[in-house]
Structure formats: C-alpha cells, structure tokens
Amino acid sequence: MKSSEQIFIEFYEKERKALDIKFKKVFKEKKPASLYEPSAYIIENGGKRLRPILVLLSCMAAGGDKNKAVNAAIAVEILHNFTLVHDDIMDNAPKRRGLPTLHNKYDLSTAILAGDNLIAFAYQYLLKDCLDNDKQVIATFTKGIVEICEGQSLDKVFEVKKDVTIEEYMLMIKKKTAALIEICCSIGAQIAKGEKKDIANLSKFGLYLGLAFQIQDDLLDIFGNEKEFGKTVGGDLIEGKKTYLFIKAFEKAKGKDKQKLESVIKNKGVAKEDVPSYKELYIKLGVIDEANKEIVKYTSKALNSIKSLKNSEAIELLNSLANSLIKRNK
Amino acid sequence: MKSSEQIFIEFYEKERKALDIKFKKVFKEKKPASLYEPSAYIIENGGKRLRPILVLLSCMAAGGDKNKAVNAAIAVEILHNFTLVHDDIMDNAPKRRGLPTLHNKYDLSTAILAGDNLIAFAYQYLLKDCLDNDKQVIATFTKGIVEICEGQSLDKVFEVKKDVTIEEYMLMIKKKTAALIEICCSIGAQIAKGEKKDIANLSKFGLYLGLAFQIQDDLLDIFGNEKEFGKTVGGDLIEGKKTYLFIKAFEKAKGKDKQKLESVIKNKGVAKEDVPSYKELYIKLGVIDEANKEIVKYTSKALNSIKSLKNSEAIELLNSLANSLIKRNK
C-alpha cells in the first residue's frame, strides 16, 4: 500500500505537470511580443505551483470537482507571479528561481507593465471559472490584492523603521504572504459551492499555512542552499528586511550583538560577505529554534481548521502538503 | 434660454464637483499611510474627470439612472490614475497636472505599489455597481486593462523603433488611450441595461472620441501652455515618442529636415532647449493641419455613432462634450 506521503507526491506532481502545460499556453503567440515574451518568461519558469494546487485541493475538500477550478487555479498563479515581478523590482532582486529577475533580464518598464498585465490576465482566468457566484469570488480575489499591496507597503516601511515588533511583523506577513494563500483556499471552496463553514475553515487553513510558510521563507533566505532556493542567500539581510529572525534577534541581543544588529538598520542592510556572521549570531541567540517552533504552531493551527471537513481524501492531501512545506528547501 | 454649451458646462461642473467629493473619501483614513497617502495624492489632485463623466453620460444615454453608475464612474477614474502613475515612471515624467509625479514625490517602490493597489480598488468600486450582469461588466473592464497594457508596451517599443507607420500608431493609441474611453461608455451603457445596439454604439462613440483625444493630446504636448497643460511642454519629443506629429513629419520631410527628425530617433529624444525648433518644423511641414483634420474626422465619427440613441438630453450633452474636447487646452 502507498503511504499518504507517496499519494500526495504523486497527486502533486501530476497536477503540477498538467498546470505547467497550461501555463505554457497562457501567453502563447500573443502580441505584442514586447509584453508577452516577458510574461511567458516569468510564468513558465517553474516555481512550486503551490497556490494553484491549493485552489484545486480546497475545491475538492469543499466537495467540488477540481476540474471546475482549473482556471481559478491558473488565475492565482498568474497573480502570484505579478507580485514576484513587482516585488523583485522593489527589492532590487537580481535572481529568482535561479534565473535573472524580469527587470534584470529586460528592463524596468517591461517589468512594471508585464506585472500590471498579469493582474488583468488573472481576472480573465478567474472569470472563466465563475458561475453564479462571480461577485463573491471576484470580491474575495480583489480584497486579496489590496491586502498584498498593503503588506508589501508595510514590508518596505519596515526596512527603514527601527522598532518593528513581532506583532507588526505578523500583520505584515498576514497581508503580504498569507492573504494570497488564504484566497486560494477560499476561492477553491467557493467555486465548489461549499458550505459557508467549510469555506471559512478552508480560509483559516490557508491563512495559518501562509503564516507558517512565510516564517519558513525567512529561515530559507539565510539557511537555504542558493542553488536549490534560486535566490541570493541572505537577500533579506542585504536589503535590510525586518524578518522574523531579525526582529527576534533584535529583541534578545545585548551589548555588541545588539550593536551588530543596529548597524543593519543604520546601514539599511549588510554587505553580502557579512551574511555568514549574522547567520552565526542568529544561531547563538536561539532565534532559529523559536522560528521553527512558530512554523510548527501555525501548521498545527492550519491542520486543526480542516479536521471537520467531509472529504477525507482531500484532508489527507492537505495534511501532507502542510507537512511537506515544513520540510521544504525552496 | 440656456445654450446647449451652457447646459453642458453646468452639468459637467456639477458632476465633477460631486465626484471630487467622493474621490476625497476613497482612501481617507485607510492604513497603512505609506500606501494610502500617495494614493490620495494622485486621485485628489484634480484632472478633468472626463472618464467618470463619460460613464455617467453613457448610462443616461442608454436609458439608465446615472446615480446607479457612480461607483463604476469612480472605478474608471481610479483605473485611469493607475495608468498615469505607472506610465509616468516609464516615461521619466517629472510633473503631472503641474505637480511632481508620484515616483518623483515619493519613490519608485511607492509608485509601483500605489499603482497596483489602484487596480484592485478600481475593481472594488466597479463591483459595487454590478447587478446581475457583473460578469459582462467585469470582463469588459478587464479586457480594457489588457488593451491599455498592450498599448503602453507598443508605445515603449515605438520609442526605439525607427519606422513606425501611422497604421501602427493608430493601433497603439486605440489600445493605450481609446480602449479606456471606450470601456467607460460601454460600462455606463451596460449598467443602464441598455439595448445591445445602444451599448455597441456608445462603445464606438468612446473609441472614436478616444482616438481624437489622443491626437489632440499629441498636439497639446507641444503647443500647450505648460501652466495650463500641467506637463513639461515637448515631453513627447524629449522622450523620443513617436507621436502623430512626429510620424507624419517623418513621412513628409526631406533633406535636412529629415536628418533633423532622424536625429531624434538616433538620440532617443531631444534636449528640452531644442523643442521649439521641432515645433517650427512641424508647422512648416503642415502636420499640424493634418492632425487637426484627423481630430475633426474622429470626433464626427464619434458623434455619428450616437445619433440613433433615444435619450436626446444625453446625446446633446455628449455632443457638447466631444466639441469641448476639440477646444481643450489641457
């Protein structure tokens, strides 16, 4: 008999491949090439496809046919890619998924414009899967975009703000990262025409999963392997981002350690060669353990939210997915 | 008795003032301030409010109650402002409506993000006025955004393309400028639940009006008064834009005149102090007259499209509006 992990991996790989084929078609032969070649570049260059698969699984979990949510799944991935393109500009990120970022490969105007157009394309795909509950689905989606922008704005403000608390950080990642994962689950359940409480529970699952996901991302930024992670290791420190690790470390540090962290704020980031010394400091201050504990806590909260759903196959798959995210290295 | 021009001016001013009050509330007290202060800055800083008023007038013209289209009117103005914010980044524009552009007053990240969020806010307002024909209205709106992005992409490509034809230019302005004016008219008529042919005729009106509007804008860029126009005079030439005037002049010029125009392409623009000499060249080559003829031609086409509509009051107002645009100086 197959283990539930095996079943999950097979399900995920099958859906991911099917989605990848669809992503190759989204911008195919569209004109002008000046807009659609870069769009294809970003959407076809891999990624985990976590968000669209969450739409499909949430649709199943709420009692729906996942095939009816495929366009909505494509929509959330397009939207996610919009956030990557524009965030990479704002973060001066040179690489994404091991390849040059869009503004780096093309130019600033192309990246701004391709990102804008991705938003509209996301709506076009979403509209394909809306039935008689369009308005609710589109409103959820739209509210998500507003939250993402608010979260990104807070993230930028925090880069130059001295005293960011963990509460402020949690609000920021709730908006910047968790909101999109939440809408994936909510929209999947809405398209399934799930019961109100099931939609609410799946939304909560997405929210908690998103919080765990972002804290894990903060860890991977500094502890990930550059090749697997595909981004510059320590990019958050280089950009002076107030991550979970930084804020916790800043709370706990004293004396010279505190000064070392204060210099990050003062200099709005660190040089690439200084990243390893901050990694050591984080370990010494015990903030890695704390981050791991938070990841486990929010993952448990996520899983508790979907216990009562009826579709046991989908619950099992969502369980495996949540656990696989804890172990991820990219 | 009041002239139809007086009636139009009074109608326009009344609606513009009512809209301005509403625009002041859109982002009021919203947080984070880092996102919403810049949003308020751009939406509150005037502008003609042409597009929202077209939504209201089209709603009336198709037999609807304009009060039911107010949120849709707000939506198109928010969307319009998104295009201004992002285009100004791409065009390196220092001023807009006589004030610093958003990226100039704040920074690049803020301008990108505020623009993104404006798109989502536009959808939020649009959703407020959608009844049981949401899907059609939202699809029209979304298709418009795609066209705007495609048009802007063509505009950027044309900056470095040597041989842009008038046909290519017309396709570009149809997408970049006319598409939004077209959706204003289409959405207004759709919200009115107008007859299919009335929606189509009003859309056509918007399209032709948009073409006339953009050619007029090309003229104003170089013949406008900086104070009234609010933008840097000659900005299109400085940025090396392929405007109607430039393309026509390039077609007609010979010898030294041709070389002068070729140098704009070669140098990707001209210095500010050289703008007056190009103005003279345009006059000498007769392209100003040609542009004015095109403006009159498309305005007539626009007005012919709405002759058969039933609401004579709205037709009269749309007539006056179209004629006022020909005479505008900003």
Structure description:
The structure is a homodimer of 330-residue chains. The first copy, chain A, is built from 16 helices and two strands. With 330 residues, chain A is an all-alpha fold. The first copy, chain A, is globular and about 60 Å long. Chain A has helices spanning 4-26, 33-44, 50-61, 70-90, 102-105, 108-128, 134-160, 166-191, 196-223, 226-229, 235-238, 244-252, 255-266, 275-285, 287-305, 312-327; strands spanning 95-96, 99-100. Chain A is 75% helix and 1% strand. A two-stranded antiparallel sheet of chain A has the order 1-2. In chain A, 53% of the residues are buried. The two termini of chain A are 29 Å apart. The interface between A and B is large, with 38 and 38 residues.
Features:
homodimer; 330 residues; mainly alpha; 16 helices; 1% strand; globular
What class do helices, strands and sheet pairing of chain A give?
mainly alpha
- SSE string of chain A: HHHHEEHHHHHHHHHHHH
Query: What is the averaged pLDDT score of chain A?
Result: 94
Q: Largest interface, counted with CB-CB under 8 A?
A: A-B, 38 and 38 residues
> How large is the share of residues in beta strands of chain A?
under 5%
Question: Got a strand count of chain A?
Answer: 2
Specify the oligomeric state: homodimer
Distance between the termini of chain A: 29 Å
Sheet with most strands: strand arrangement of chain A:
1-2
Largest pleated sheet of chain A: 2 strands, antiparallel
Q: Which radius of gyration of chain A do the C-alpha atoms yield?
A: 20 Å
**Number of helical stretches of at least 4 residues of chain A:** 16
Relative helix content of chain A = over 70%
Q: Using the alpha-carbon principal axes, give the shape of chain A.
A: globular
Contiguous runs where pLDDT drops below 50 for at least 5 residues of chain A: none
